[in-house]
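Hi everyone,

Forwarding the result from last night's run.
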Amino acid sequence: MNWLSLLIPVYNVEPYLAQCLESVMEQAGEGVQVIVLDDCSTDGSWALMQSLAARWPGRLQLMQHAKNGGLSAARNTMIDAADGEYLWFLDSDDKLLPGSIGALQRIVRAHAPDVVLCDFSVWRERPRLKHALRGERHRRSFEGPSGQLLRDPAQLLAGMLATGQLHAWSKISRRALWPGLRFPAGRYFEDLMTMPQLATRAASFYHCAEPWVAYRQRGDSILATMNETKARDQAGALLPLAACQPLPLLQDARVQFAWAHQCARGFIGAMRYAERLGRSAPRARVQALADALRADFERASPLLPARLARAYLRRGWLLRWMKLRRWLKWRPE
């Protein structure tokens, strides 16, 4: 059995794919399975995959969907095909930074955690000083202790939710955690829906406070191309976690605040889209969307809005308090 499976979904990423796979194959040694799945790309991605596979004979496992199913479906297919003890999802327009797989292997050999979290850097084609000043060279994916094995699932979940960095590619997990858990096909913000559930299954974790992934900033991201469907998925992204409510760790005060705060962030982001929509769409349509977003927020959050607002004030988070109040009261003109 391989100790690691790297799972790379591909859809119309021909300009970026070679950089991604080169960053993996330069450091993927024995015991590392690399699966690359084409989700019916309409550009030259599939042909490029075949060409790149010839550069590393027998080292890339190529797959192809018969019809386009989206990112979640692609990842789910690869989970079923993986045989590694650990799973690492990598988007095909991003890349692994040098030494990442070796650093992961040292942690796995020394501590064997259920989940390993890594940090990341934002990768821009034309980085500027302002980007460096924003801390884009090193973004944390976890708020809490680093460099040690921890066995507190509530701390894992609260630390993930606190940063809001819930992407799948910064969490390497045991394949044994995935039975019965899959990414939601046909939904947006699928990582927010899935990774918190994964955290509830982990008995131990390790956070490495080093960037292992270079995340490419693109102009056609989900947030840059919002619509009503995406707004609903954003506001209700943590509804699957609410369905896990009987779990004792979800009653932890750290988890409840971080969870409610992340729900508020998603709600506010979705409401900003509703406000933009209100400049061109009928008022009744925008009002219906705003009402639905508020309802999704309240169903997903473990704390009622008024209680979360009081928690913000106790922490001195006046700006957060003001934003939450504004968007809870917002109505289209």
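The CA atoms of residues 264 and 324 lie 7 Å apart.

Cheers,
N.
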